[in-house]
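[worker-b] picked up task from shared queue
[worker-b] task type: protein-ligand structure
[worker-b] ligand name resolved to zinc ion; SMILES cross-checked against name lookup, match
[worker-b] sequence length check passed
[worker-b] input payload:
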Amino acid sequence: MKADFCRRILAWIIDALFPLRCPFCGDVIDRNAECCEVCFAKLPFADLKDSCTRCGKRECVCGSVPLITMTRPVFYYEELASHAVLRMKFAHRPGTAIALGRFMADAVQKEGGSWDMIVPVPMTKRKVRRRGYNQSELLGRSVAERLNIPLNTALRKTRETKAQHTLDEQERAKNLLGAYQADPALVQGKRVLLCDDVLTTGATLKEGAKALLQAGASEVGAVVLCCVERNRV
Ligand SMILES: [Zn+2]
Ligand SMILES: [Zn+2]
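[worker-b] inference finished, payload out:
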């Protein structure tokens, strides 16, 4: 009884000191919520009925040998969602990832399928040092917690690459060739769900999946927070 009371007081103090905020507008929200009601009504949820289920894009980018069995984007990379991504990445607001990851977890749950581990798309150590965190890993941590699936950093980025947003489609694919390596001891025979923040041409997920399958993963799927669809509406 007393322990329960202490736990409640502690939770109350943590809530007061570190409230969870809406990842889109910054208002304080309930600790278990994903965002505030006002933002929820305006969110650009991805409509996937015309998208390829494997790569998550309207214009399929799977190529001749599809590596990924399912890609589930949550939002289009448009207002509110894109602002939240930028805030998470560049405005030193890593806490935003907790709430955003919950949207991703819910999307995976709706999709069904079973996964042995969540693997975030990695950054090089140097880049993590510079930013202070890898946003895909923070998102992955939140997804893993919500779905009760272990998070595993089994994928490594082995070399620095140019920033993908500065390149065109072909350069993007070339830029990442062989840039990832997976640990066979961790992924052999496992169904891996890759986790990333933004899906643009699919080059990152494809290279990540290639490394995981080469290391023996039995299946690779992906969940991404946002998908860039240029010619929408
Ligand atoms: Zn809000
Ligand atoms: Zn496709």
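[worker-b] attaching auto-annotations
[worker-b] The radius of gyration is 18 Å.
[worker-b] releasing lock
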